[in-house]
Amino acid sequence: MKIALLGYGRMGKEIEKIALQRGHEIVLKVSKDSSYDICKADVAIDFSIPDAAYGNISNCINNNIPVISGTTGWLDHYDAIEKLCLDKEGAFIYASNFSLGVNIFFELNKQLATLMKTVEGYNTSIEEIHHTKKLDAPSGTAITLAEGIIEDSEKTAWKLDGKASENTIPIAAKRIPGVPGTHTISYDSDIDSIEIKHTAHNRQGFALGAVVAAEWLQHRKGVFTMKDVLNIG
Ligand SMILES: NC(=O)C1=CN([C@@H]2O[C@H](COP(=O)(O)OP(=O)(O)OC[C@H]3O[C@@H](n4cnc5c(N)ncnc54)[C@H](O)[C@@H]3O)[C@@H](O)[C@H]2O)C=CC1
Ligand SMILES: O=C(O)C1=N[C@H](C(=O)O)C[C@H](O)C1
Question: Per its record, what are the GO molecular function terms (predicted)?
Fold first, then answer.
């Protein structure tokens, strides 16, 4: 598979390693806002910056190149991308987190939320910890986790770094040098606490998931998620 890397930073470089190991070829590396010929690629993988994701993804869809995006912090434009993809009969996957472990954790989070709905007296909260170079907060993964809880609970929204009201989930975003990504969901009562936690030890899981998703998407049409790729949930 000929892969275009839209974004060649920490993730772009990790994806390159795994793509080469799996027998793919990197035909394009883009690191800044510039014009490029996406048509030489079979598939594009966007891990860029929040301000660039919409332009990169729409360029791929307009040129009929399947595209996966792991960039976070651009979801105000997600509906527009979904519509463009369906109108153009393109192929697109966004995931806030491509790692297999986190996608299992997403399902566990939803199951725990369903269980916790049956008991009283617990306060729900989310904490995410990432390296200090991260541009967005809260992390895309923390937002997906909050949305998973909201799907099946009385919670209606999340709130970053603030005091939450009864119906909102507070998300604390911490930045510590070198941390690839740690997410914890806590349910605290006067009597006890229940916590589930995912800790990424490095970026390999994100990168492997992204390459597997690109392989899966190459000959498909439509807008998909990692649940489709992994056939879970
Ligand atoms: N979904 C997932 O599994 C994961 C998502 N991420 C997300 O991926 C994104 C990238 O993360 P990192 O690689 O750690 O960041 P990074 O800052 O190391 O790399 C981003 C790269 O994008 C480049 N860039 C700037 N403008 C661009 C443009 N117009 N087109 C293409 N590239 C451009 C920058 O020069 C930089 O090299 C972030 O939004 C991060 O939150 C990170 C890890 C996992
Ligand atoms: O910026 C990162 O590094 C990461 N970003 C993603 C997010 O915002 O959830 C995924 C992962 O946690 C690493």
Answer: 4-hydroxy-tetrahydrodipicolinate reductase
